Amino acid sequence: MENALIAPAKYFLFFMPTVVFSILIPLVGVAVFAYIMAIRMAPLVKAAPDSRLDRIPQRVYHVMKIWLAQYRQPRYMLAGVVHIMIFAGFLILSIRSCSLVITGIFENFVMPGFGGIIGDIYNPLKDYAATVVLIACVIAAFRRVVVKPARYAVPAKYGKDHTGEALFVLGLIATLMISESLFEASSVAANVQLGLHAEFLAPVSLAWYIKKALLSTSVETLQTLHIAAYYIHDLTFFFFLCFLPLGKHFHVITSLFNVYFMRIDRGNVKPVQHGVKDEELDDLESFGVKRLEDFTWKHILDFYSCADCGRCSDNCPANAVGRPLSPRFISIKGRDLAFKNYPIYPYGSPFKKSADLIGSIYEEDEIWSCTTCGACEQECPIGIEYIDKIVDLRRGMVDEGMVPQSLQKPLSALEKRGNPWGKMEKKRADWTKDLPADVTVKDLTKVSAEALYFVDSITSYDDRMQAIGQATATILSRAGADVGILGKKEKDSGNEVRRFGEEMLFQTMREMNADAILNSGVKHIITADPHAYNALKNDYQGLPPVEHISQFIARNVKSGAIQLTGANGDGKVYTYHDPCYLGRHNDVYEEPRVALDAIAGLKRVEMRRCRDRSFCCGGGGLMLFYEPEEDQRMGVLRVEMASRAGANVIVTACPFCLVNMEDAIKVAGLEGKMEAIDLSELIVRHMV
User: Fold this and answer.
1) What is the rounded distance in angstroms from the CA atom of residue 171 to the CA atom of residue 154?
2) Residue 331, Cβ density class (10 Å: 0-12 exposed, 13-18 middle, ≥19 buried)
3) pLDDT for 168-226, tens place per residue?
4) 590-597 and 549-559 helices, crossing angle to 10°
5) Residue 527 near residue 455, CB atoms below 8 Å
6) 148 Rama class: left (phi>0) / alpha (psi -120 to 50) / beta
7) What is d(CA 547, CA 479) in angstroms, rounded to the nearest whole number?
8) What pLDDT is stored for residue 632 in this prediction?
9) Which residues sit opposite 7 in a β-bridge?
10) Which residues, in sequence order, are CB contacts of 672 under 8 Å at separation 6+?
11) What is the mean pLDDT of residues 9-13?
12) For position 593, what pLDDT does the model report?
């Protein structure tokens, strides 16, 4: 096919063939990119091991859903749609950009498979893709400069914000879109002027508009624009490629791999060190993360992959109440340290020896402020993990004796008595003394039973929370369950002990609990404490199946074993608060709602933040003893959310949540206007 313009592969500039530039630009670009990536790989090679090569089908599914389909992006609708526009456009145009690189050397090159009908479909598609991406860049720049969402802001203590870098990258993307469209449009415009066959340009696309604007331009000028557009695109393409690993836009390269290797199971915590068995932990010289290289390679990949979108921090309850923690900066500071210690242009010694992280990069209060609620991980659109990093940093601090004063006493009590209050083991079953006469709960140290009710520490010893134990036992007994308790042989489940970095103490408690449970001969386990549910289900091995009381209630309501009376128009409006360790960590969302909705006439509303966006109460486990620096209690924010939803009763399914909600109602000045009740207590009130 005859073209009016000379292609870059055959053009001469000042008697020099431009094909020389077409060869040199990719060669230099690829070489520089390879060098940069080799430096960036160094900390991953030096990092701790991580087992991420299993369950390939599930990992591929995550890539298709979370990376390719951008499943989590629309959770922030406008920003998400704009990102999807840019991402989808990039995928479509990547074929065109790669093809153009070779076209500069071989004029008639066509990407394999794109010479026939596929090419006829692809060409207008890529024209529209370039148009959509350019529009998305304009919207994104407007948001950055004018709207300025609060989640993009960078506190002074963390340095400068990244608006400049973001705008620069948007400019590079826009340059790629415009130069590609100009290259195409100039050729078509010249062919139209000379009456030659012209390639079809998608109507109302960027290239189509540029062609319209150039129809009266001289062929000589079009030739200049054609060559200039090509080399601007070529230079921008390879400059952009080499620029990506230098800042927050590294995620353009790493996000695919980060999503593929993201954690599949939730609720669990990584082992102290992959490849080291529990019985070998005593042989380790050091526990946890103390230096950069103590992180696993996946966690450093997380640092590289952070897009600095701020979604994690925007949903972090610790950040919301002014605690010195913002998950976003856990990643950013880690990435900055990796860049600093492994510089692109090393002088003298190629890499610096990593110093202790605590006190230089991360602060003690920052790491202790995390409630491990999982909101940050649920929100991240590219699978960045925080809980394991936090736990590993805590393990390192515990190993160095850096434990907050307020936590030392409960941890010592757990070691001595198996509960953070330090109360006598023989009093663990005292709550059963006030059970109704028709309720039977067996003592598994004396007789056997089909099911174990694992009570855990707070319900066993806290005067108010003992009512949850009594309500739970009543539900189980009246539903016909053959149930017993371990009594003094039960220890704290250890869920928080492990997540606060006391791994060896957790191992001891897990061993004692597991032995007691297995020796009792029970066939399944039931608990009303989501923290115990999570630990028994995800941190223990070889136990019978574990069920939360909400699941038991929902199942027995459906079967008819539990029958409930109506709410009888009590005038109350209920809302259900999803506990973090029942919802986000274990996907139990529907059963508590099924149980509530089985009460005829009960009016229930949802809070704005519910289900996987539920807001942590702030009281999980040892957080009841921790004294953080904060502007406001998390529980106060939560009851205010309930009030705004129009509710006057908050239903919880966790003793820790109930403690915090009742305290928060008082602090918020809502006594008499708002009340909190556990799901088990509410169900017992309505059992026939």
Assistant:
1) 22
2) buried
3) 999 999 999 999 999 999 999 999 999 898 889 999 999 999 999 999 999 999 999 99
4) 50
5) yes
6) left
7) 15
8) 92
9) none
10) none
11) 92
12) 98
* Burial label, 150 (beta-carbon count in 10 A; 0-12, 13-18, 19+): exposed
The 3 state secondary structure assigned to 381-417 is CCCCCCHHHHHHHHHHHHHCCCCCHHHHHHHHHHHHH
- Dmax (CA) for the chain in angstroms is 104
Residue type (1 letter), 305: S
Exposed / middle / buried, residue 197 (Cβ in 10 Å: 0-12, 13-18, 19+):
exposed
From the list 265, 350, 333, the residue with the least C-alpha distance to 299 is: 333
For 347-394, how does the pLDDT look when each residue is reduced to its tens digit (9 = 90+)?
A: 655 677 778 999 999 999 999 999 999 999 999 999 999 999 999 999
Tokens of 334: 């880690």
> Cα–Cα distance between 495 and 454 in angstroms, integer?
13
Overall residue count recorded for the chain in this entry:
688
Q: How far apart are CA 332 and CA 254, in angstroms?
A: 15
Cα gap 527→285, rounded to integer Å: 37
Neighbouring CB atoms inside 10 A of 1's CB total 8
- Residue 661: predicted pLDDT: 96
Type and span of the H or E element at 507 = helix 503-520
Q: Is the dihedral of CA 347, 349, 353, 359 positive or negative?
A: negative
Please state, in angstroms and rounded to a whole number, the distance separating the CA atoms of residues 254 and 258: 6
For the chain, how are helix, strand and coil distributed in percent, rounded to 5?
A: 55, 5, 40
pLDDT digits (tens, 9 = 90+) for 308-337: 999 999 999 999 999 999 999 999 999 999
- Count Cα atoms within 13 angstroms, Cβ side, for 62: 20
